[in-house]
Amino acid sequence: MDVATTAAEPTRRDFLYLATGAVGAVGVAAAIWPFISQMNPDADTIAQGAPVDFDLTPVAEGQIVKLFWRGKLIFVRNRTPAEVKAAEDVSLASLPDPQPDSARVKKGHANWLVVYGNCTHLGCVPLGNEGPYNGWLCPCHGSVFDTSGRIRQGPAPTNLPVPPYEFVSDTKIKIG
Known about the structure:
The protein is α+β, with helices and mostly antiparallel strands.
């Protein structure tokens, strides 16, 4: 019997060692997977804090679009040149919560206004393109906001807040 030929050929025992090792490796990976997976944040956490990308291309001039970020309503308004001019020409002394229009929009993008969509009085959702200033009108208690989201009349104490956002390109914004 030649020892060199029998040692070079794989035996049944070699196959069993390899198969046992492979099954053991798969078993260890399957046992460790839940521990690694539980370190990731759950879907609700990701949905609550993740930034929202929004394409501005389909929003027509004068249109208001509603979307949600972190469970809060957001208004994105494509203001007309007349609305921008009217918002810029307002005397700050006449406003209950004085804030220039330029502080509420991004430089170079004066036609785009992004604000939270809840009245600062009791959290109602104001109606867009309504009221004497053609901005927003809260139907519940009568707060009136202009086209810059600034309070003009009614019980709301402050302007509609501006969420953190930035222009990623000329036609896309990222909220959050």
